[in-house]
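ugh finaly. both done.
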Amino acid sequence: MTKIYSISGLMPLDAPLMSQRPFWSPHYTTSNAGLVGGGHWPRPGEVTLAHRGVLFLDELPEFGQSVLEVLRQPIEDKTVTISRAQGSVTFPANFMMVAAMNPCPCGNHGDSVKTCTCSAGTVSRYQKRISGPLLDRIDIFVEVPRVDYEKLTSPDAVEGSTEVRRRVETARKQQRSRFVGTTIQSNSDMGPSEVWNHCQLEEAAQRLVKTAMEQLHFSARAYHRTLKSDRTFADLAGSETVNVAHLAEAIQYRQRELA
C-alpha cells in the first residue's frame, strides 16, 4: 500500500509508511478513469487506492452503468491493467467492495410504514441499473429494514464491536495458518483448487447446495463464492469443519430479487 500511495503522491510528509488499511468512498459522479485509473500517463484509480482495504460505493444505482461495469474485471482478477500507446501497466486492486442502495427512487419500496410512490416499471428500471454479472460477484446481500424506536432506545445489551473484532481477528489468524507458505491471505483469495481442498462438504451439505443451485440457478462463480463464504462462517464460529448450518447461512446471504 505504501508504494501505491507514494507513486500517487498521497503519502503524508510525516508518515513514511502506511499503517492503516485504506477506506475509499468515491462519489457516484466519478468517471471510469477515476475509478479504475487512467490518464495519458496511467495513474492508480480508486480501486487501487483501496487495495487491501474497503471501497464503499454509496447510492450504487446512481453510478453510471459503464462505470459500474468496469468493476467486474478488478473484482474477479484483483488487478487492473491499463493500456496506452506507450505500453501497459498493471495495478493491484484486491479490495473489499461494500455498496449501499435504496430499493427504489423514493426509497420506500417494501417499507411497512411508508407507501412507495414509484410504479412497478420505475422500480424495475432502477434496480436493473446494476447488471446481473456485477451482482453475481457480490457475496453477501443484506436488507436493512426500518428500525423501531424501542430498538434504538432499548437498554438490552448487544454484542459490542470489541467482541466482534475479537472473533474476526481469530478467524483471520486461522486463515493465515491455513494458507501458510502460499500467496493466499484470506478465504476470499482462494481459487477453485483451494476451494476443493478446504471447503469439503458433508453429505447433508452437498444435498443442500445441490438444491440451492437448482432452485436459485447459481452460476459456477456463485457456487464457488458461496463455498468460500461458508468456510468463513465456519471460521467465525471457531469450527474446523464446514457443516450444513454454515452453508445455509452462506446461501441465505446470496442475491435475492428486490422487486
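ok and the 2nd:
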Amino acid sequence: MENLLIGGISSNIAITMTAPLELYKVQSQNRYMKESTMKNVFKKEGIKYLWKGNGVNCIRAFPQISINFACFEYFKKNNFSGIENETFKHFIAGGAAGIVSKTCVYPLETVRTRLSLQMNHSHYTSIYDALKKMPFRQLYGGLTMSLIGYGSFNALNFGFFNFYKNISKKHLQTESNINKLLCGGLSSVTAVTITYPSDLIRKRLQMQGFNENVPKYKGIIDCFTKMKQINGPKSLYKGLIPTYIKLFPCFAIQFWCFEKGKELIKT
C-alpha cells in the first residue's frame, strides 16, 4: 500500500510539472494532425490548455505508476530475489511490472492521447464522453505494441536507474538529491532511445478512427512498413527530441519523489 501511494503521488507531481512538454511531444509524434500545434493551442484555446489532457493523464498515471512501482518492489523482493546481479534484477522486475501496470489502465492512455490532440472539444467533452463514444477495439488499439514497448522501456528504465545510481555512489561517494535527479533523467533517456519506435507506433495505432486525416494501418507490421516507406527509417524516430525534453525532467522528478518517499516511510 505504501509503494502504491508513493508511486501514484510521485507520478502526478512529475506529470503535472511537465504537462506542456508532454503535449508538445504528442503533437510532434502526430504531425498529420496539422491543426494541433502549440501555436494553435495558445491562439485558439489559451495558455491553460497547455495542460489539456493532463487530468486524464493524472487519472491514468496514478493507478498505472502506483501498480508499476508496487509490482516492481514486490517482484524484486519475491519473484526475482534469487538473482544476485542487482541491475539485472531491476531489469526483470521492471519489465514484468510495466506489462502488468500498462494492461490495467490502457484505455485511459488512449483517451489521453485523443484529448490532447483535439481542438476546442471537437470530438469529446470529457473522459467519460470519450470512453462512451469509443468502440472497445479503439480503446485497446495498439495494446500489443504498447506491452512490447512499455515492458521493454520499463525494464531498461529501472535497470539503468540502478546502474547509474551505483556508478554515482561509487565515484562520487554520495547519494545527493542532484545525483538521484540525474540518474532518473538519464535512465529514461537511455531507455527511450532504445525503445522509441514502439512508442511512436503505439500513438499512431491509438489514433485509428479519430478522423479522416489519420493514416490507416492494419496493425503493427503495416504501420511500421508504411511509415518507413513514406519517410524512410528516420520517420520511426519522429518526435524523439521533444520526447527527450519531456522525459528527462519527468522521470528525474518521478524517481526522486519515489526514492524520497521510501526514505520518509523508513524514518
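summary for the 2nd one i guess: Residues 32 and 213 are 7 Å apart (CA to CA).
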